[in-house]
Write a structure and sequence with these properties.
By secondary structure, this protein is α+β, with helices and mostly antiparallel strands. It is built from one helix and five strands. It has a single domain, classed as 2-Layer Sandwich (Glycoprotein, Type 4 Pilin). The chain has one helix at residues 9-59; strands spanning 86-87, 95-102, 107-113, 123-128, 133-137. A five-stranded antiparallel sheet has the order 1-2-3-4-5, covered by helices on one side.
Length: 149
Amino acid sequence: MKRTKGFTLIELMIVVAIIAIIAAVGFPSYQNYIVQTNRTQCQSALAQMANAMERHYTMAVPSTYGGAGSIGAGLNTGAPTIFATTAPIDATATCDLTIVSATVNDYLLAATPIAGTLLAGDGMSTLNAAGQKCWHDGDDTGANTCSPW
């Protein structure tokens, strides 16, 4: 009897089914990992922006956090003029960095997910002059309760 080499169609179908099951489980986990990584990069950029705000405060005469933004009376809000406006700084942007408010002795910074990116809908991150870090889980407007990051 002649023996043929190779795989049967059933064996190939079983392998394809196993690969499909592994992919169905693995892909959502991978996407969650990417979202967490992007969120962490945006939060890291907020911390770096807070350092830039402190530098601005020490360099301003008289000392103030005001004037670091691009809009509003005294340029106290909007996109920062002293730091990058999006994060991550060295890759495709997933969040916008803004100065929500800046006064003589206080500021509030925000990282808002950009629509159309994987981070959209994940929630806004904020950081203030007192060092309070806040992540508004699932809320890109920052209206709901926050959890520390």
